[in-house]
Each structure stands twice: as C-alpha cells, then as structure tokens.
Specification:
144 residues; mainly alpha
Amino acid sequence: MPGYNTHRIFNYIIFIAAVLAVYYSGILHLSPVQLLVIGLGFYIGTEFVTPDLDIDSSAYKRWGRLRFLMLPYKWLFKHRQSSHNIFYGAIVRILYITAIIAALYYLIFKSLPLENILFPVHIIIFLVGIIAANALHVILDGIF
C-alpha cells in the first residue's frame, strides 16, 4: 500500500498533467478563479479529506486540535472498506464535514443560512476537486 507522500506526489503530478492537458487542448475553458477553486478543492481532498481519515494517518494528524471531530468517522468506518469506495467514499466524508460545519454554525448563530441553500458553481467545482483527489487516492491504492 502506498504511503502518504506517494499519494501526495501521485495526486499532484496527475492534477498538473490534467490541468495542462485541459488548458492546451481547449476542451474546457476555466477562468483563473475556477482553476484556483478546483485546485483548492483538490488540495483539501489530497491533504485533509482523504480516505485515510479512518486511521491515525498523516492526514488525520493534519487536523491538529480539531482531529477529535474525526473520531466518530474513525469509529464508523473501517479502513479500506467503504471509506475507500471510489463512488461514495468522498461524498460521505464531504457530508460528514458539512454536517459538522452546519452544527457549529447553528450553535454559534442559532440558525442555518437557508437563503444560501442554492449551490453556486464554485462550490460544485470545489467539490469536484475533492472528489477527484479522493478518486486518485483510491486508484493508487488499487494499483499497489
């Protein structure tokens, strides 16, 4: 099984190659802001929201003092099972973290921002970055 740095290097090489291929082929026309947003999502997906949050991994430790928020996730998911599913592993982690953020927001402001329920395109692009990073992680695990 590849180590944490192997996953990181693999993800960033593939991401850079994909961005260059898309840019020079003219398949997609991404604005600099959209490219920054997908890059940020990819970075978050590679460094913080990885399939390895269910073990004492480098990604888990990167959460620092907030890693206690990942304990229920670690208890619920066994390593290399559903957390490493290429189809819904990242979605489950995104929903888990979204629920934590919504709960904290509610505790602080005693309401939820219902007027902002529509998802702007940048949020979707950000989530695509996270999902792509997680998919590459799972693919690399499957190769080795």
